[in-house]
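The authors assume throughout that readers already know how a fold can be written as discrete tokens. For illustration, here is how one protein appears when written out as sequence plus structure tokens.
>
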Amino acid sequence: MSREAILEIQNLSLAFGGVQALNTINLKINKGDIFAIIGPNGAGKTSLLNCISGVYRPQTGTINYEGATINALTPHIRAKMGIGRTFQHVELFRGMSVLDNIKLGRHQLIRAGFFSSLFRVGSGLKGELKGREEVEEKVLDFLDLSAFRWKPVGLLPHGLQKRVDLGRALALEPELLLMDEPMAGMSVEEKEDMASFIMDVHRDLGITIVWIEHDLKTVMDLSNKVCVLNFGQKIAEGSFAEVRSIREVREAYLGVEKK
């Protein structure tokens, strides 16, 4: 694995019965990238993120993170190693407050024993209080969520719920952040806000981002590298300008008719 790469995927294949979701995918994501994965519905984009985060186990190929092969590791171990994740459909506890939802992202960082954490005594209480202080300072303020800290997530508009989902991932203090359509279902104004926060996460926190997004203008504006998937295969990789110029990409994704 090269020195500057944070994630390298080699010959990755994933199948569900007779359906080939991913077919011999090779990718290298360097530290500091904003790496976009685009393609039509059913192209295998979310399946790829699920393989990286450990939700799916590929049949063949290797996934190397920070020089270590992580294929056999569970999702929570990968999270502990610094791989954060947001979801296309908001996966939050709607009856819990913004603060409590974000604090859940830190549970991998608490080293206290089970009972002390459960009953909030001894080192468990100290860890819980320290975690809360760090979350309030680093995440709530960073994402401009402080005014909503005690608000139940289910009462928030969709755009703010997606921001809370991002905050929960950031509470883990990841080195690599996987984002699955962070702007799905948002208004134009909400998309602009989220794009700004993504740039802040990249610039101010130094986090490498791998994300799926259908808004091509946002992909063009934010990403330094783009991978295009179609029917589980990588059909292009490079800058947005480079992949847009490839006819196979235009046929598969941009609606150009085949001749």
In short: The CA atoms of residues 52 and 183 lie 21 Å apart.
